[in-house]
Amino acid sequence: MHRQIRTIALYTLLEALRNHLTWLIVLVALIGIGLSGFLNELALTESRQIQMALLAAFLRFSAVFLLATFVVTSMVREFNDKGLELLLALSLPRAAYLLGKLLGFGALAVLPAALFGVLTVFFTSMTQSMLWTISLVLELWIVAAFSMLCVLTFNQIMASLSAVMGFYLLARSIATMQLIGNDPMSAHSASQNVIGFVINGLSAVLPHLDQFTRTEWLVYHTGNWSVLLILLVQSAICLALLGGAALFDLYRKNI
Questions:
Q1: Model confidence over 37-81: pLDDT tens digits?
Q2: Rg (Cα) of the chain, in Å, rounded?
Q3: To 10 degrees, the CA torsion angle through 244, 247, 248, 250?
């Protein structure tokens, strides 16, 4: 089973390389450098900090969007081409297929994170850049796992991508929403209490991606390795839950 998982992971990674995804990642990096450099010329004060903040935000969102798009389109195309049915006809366990795909997408996530992390070295310290890069890898792993779950649930590109982007934006902003909803200085009506209850419930089940890949690490050098340990634990729990849900969804499908 381990050999089957490695084989599927390898072919998943090769598919991304054959689709010239690497060149697209390089193009995004060049665009980010150009935009940040342009803003650096416009800023009157703290130009270097503004340049770093814009570059980091652009690279992080671009990495998430590129990986989610590839995961969704790759798996939907495989379903439409009956590739999954062919693989499972060869007595391939569904768990091996899912784990192989996750491993392949996880390896793929390292490529944009490593390239974008190298770019940040020119603007900040090596330690902060390493923290940012590792955190971006963890963030991309969570996005890849959720993208797989959405594909298994919806089997459509637009629906899956919309769900992934909605999940990502919500997980990125849930802490801010919770802070606003629980403001003790504001008066709360019954409807506001219900909204606050819903937000607190979402905060309990969603990963707090606002704690991942923080721009302030690069700008103000506030990152430390103890924060990364917390992110590792949170990522492990989230990946286990998403992987289990995707595996359950795959096994219940009548293929």
A1: 776 666 555 567 777 888 899 999 999 999 999 999 999 988 887
A2: 20
A3: 160
Chain position carrying tokens 């090769």: 14
CA 177 to each of CA 64, 174, 209, 211, 212: distance values in angstroms, whole numbers, following the listed order: 22, 5, 13, 14, 17
- φ/ψ bin of 46: left (φ > 0), alpha (ψ from -120 to 50), beta (otherwise): left
pLDDT, residue 49, reads 76
CA distance 139 to 209: 7
- Residue 112's CB is within 10 A of a number of other CB atoms, namely 26
Q: What is the DSSP string of 73-114?
A: HHHHHHHHTTHHHHHHTTT--HHHHHHHHHHHHHHHHHHHHH
The residue that leads in pLDDT, 26 or 189, is 26
pTM: 0.91
| Position 156, amino acid | Q
Q: Which two tokens stand for residue 76?
A: 């939907």
- CA pair distance 45, 49, nearest whole angstrom: 9
For the chain, which residues make up each domain, given as ranges? 2-252
Q: Are 72 and 149 in contact (CB under 8 A)?
A: no
The identity of residue 254, as a single letter, is: N
